[in-house]
Amino acid sequence: MIESRYLKDNIENIQKLMQIPALRHFEVRSLSRLLRLSKIREYEDGEFIIKDGDQDSWLYFLLAGSVRIQKDGHEISRIHTMGEIFGEMRLIDKRARSADVIAMGPAVCLAVDTSADNRMAGEEGSDAQMDFLLLLYKIFAEYLSARLRLANEELVSAKKESESLKKSLDKKK
After folding, report:
1. What is the pLDDT of residues 79-94, one digit of tens each?
2. Range of the domain at 125
3. What is the SS3 assignment for 166?
4. What is the C-alpha to C-alpha distance for residues 167 and 38, in angstroms, rounded to an integer?
5. How many domains does the chain contain in total?
6. In DSSP terms, which residues pair with 86 in a beta bridge?
7. Distant-in-sequence, close-in-space partners of 6: CB < 8 Å, separation ≥ 6
8. H-helix or E-strand spanning residue 109
9. Considering the entire predicted model, what is its pTM?
10. C-alpha closest to that of 43 among 88, 128, 110
11. Is residue 65 within 8 Å of residue 107, measured between CB atoms?
12. Nearest-CA neighbor of 77 among 154, 14, 6?
């Protein structure tokens, strides 16, 4: 992994963040705060970004490339759209990472250090900090909702396939 220093909150970096669909609703001061908590991380093909069981506090926005999410060697999902979030579940429930995330080819991510509360504290007061956190959790909720809907569709499809296979086996008996 190649990792930058924490990013600076200059106008060029803020404009780049505004290109990420999930961050378009952020105000400039919130993007500025996000930048001060963020690093750019570049990964090679097959490199682990997140390991199942880890306790780290990083949240990721995919900037380029693709990643595979897997549990016990079974692929759960692939992420390949710029701006998609991963690593958010650990931030919500404070439990260990629940899956591996592996780069599929070169991948570039915006990594946000959510443990860096001290880098946010004291800046513009607690109301601004609360607004920032609420917006971040709104983004999490939108992504989790989309993923839950997809998981529901996949579950129904798997159940239909299972029922069809069971009927096929019953006919052969």
Report:
1. 999 989 999 888 788 8
2. 2-172
3. helix
4. 53
5. 1
6. 60
7. 36, 37, 38, 39, 113, 119
8. strand 100-113
9. 0.80
10. 110
11. yes
12. 154
